[in-house]
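Appendix B, example 12.
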Amino acid sequence: MFGELGKMAALMKNLQGLKENMEKMKADMAGREYAASSSNAQVTAVVSGDLVLKQLLISPDFARAGDVILLRDAVVEAVNAAITQAKCDAAGRLSEAAGGMNIPGFPS
């Protein structure tokens, strides 16, 4: 009976440490930035670790070309690539903070 209480206390202590690690990691991620470019290298997106679009750089010549569909596709591609980078980094950091556990919903 008392052995189980000891296990429960250890689990609660580990959960508190895990929560603190996660909070630190979350704050750290918010300060990071991830940049990615479209395959034609005409658009670059920069997102923060908390997935906020910070900057969108578009080549002036590409913008002047006037192909709205190509421009739209390049923007979507660059933003999605930057978000994927941020998510992959977050997954690695989350796993590390969680003691190697795989976190559902994040790429491994």
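The mean pLDDT is 84. Residues 2-97 form a domain with the Ybab; Chain: A; fold (CATH 3.30.1310.10).
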